[in-house]
Write a structure and sequence with these properties.
Mean pLDDT: 83
GO cellular component, one term: respiratory chain complex I
Protein name: NADH dehydrogenase [ubiquinone] 1 alpha subcomplex subunit 12
Structural class: mainly alpha
Subcellular location: Mitochondrion inner membrane
Helix content: 25-40%
Shape: elongated
Strand content: 5-15%
Number of helices: 5
Subunit structure: Complex I is composed of 45 different subunits.
Strand order of the largest sheet: 1-2-3
Distance between the termini: 94 Å
InterPro entries: NDUFA12
Largest sheet: 3 strands, antiparallel
Amino acid sequence: MYSGICCWTVSGLKNENKILRIKYVLLASRLAKMSIKEWLGIDKMQKFMRIIKQMGGVRAALKKRYLMDVTRVGTLVGTDKFGNKYYEDNSYFMPRNRWVEYPDKVWLDYDPTQIPPEWHRWLHHIGDDTPTQNPPKNEKWVLQHEENLSIFEDKKYIPYSTTRTKIQGWQPGQKKQQ
């Protein structure tokens, strides 16, 4: 009974050694094709430093990372009337290769309604031509695009209501009503 287990273990080790040898050969061939920069990861650091430089320095890169949750660099394709900047980098996969950067005045209060329809078309791959390459026709029945104003306190729409409030809020300094 013990000899069967030993034989199984020995044959298992032989197969395992073959697998390890194959993995070692594959790893060695992969390492042989790599340059020293790639092997030490220096190429990744160079790419990182190039991205930081293209973004305008460490401070600008940190700000963009804070606002967008991602660090991307691409070619500027155009700017719209709201000050949004549109970028493209085809090294990313299809839905993520186009993006918008909102202006600084918006800060963290950005909203998708701040993107005009012609740029929305390009951003979501409905068409490949940007509005600067192929401007839309100005029809007289088309309204001017406005962003959603409900995010601004002073421009919020508050509907008129004729019904009385059912609950009266307590205000400090009032005496209890009897």
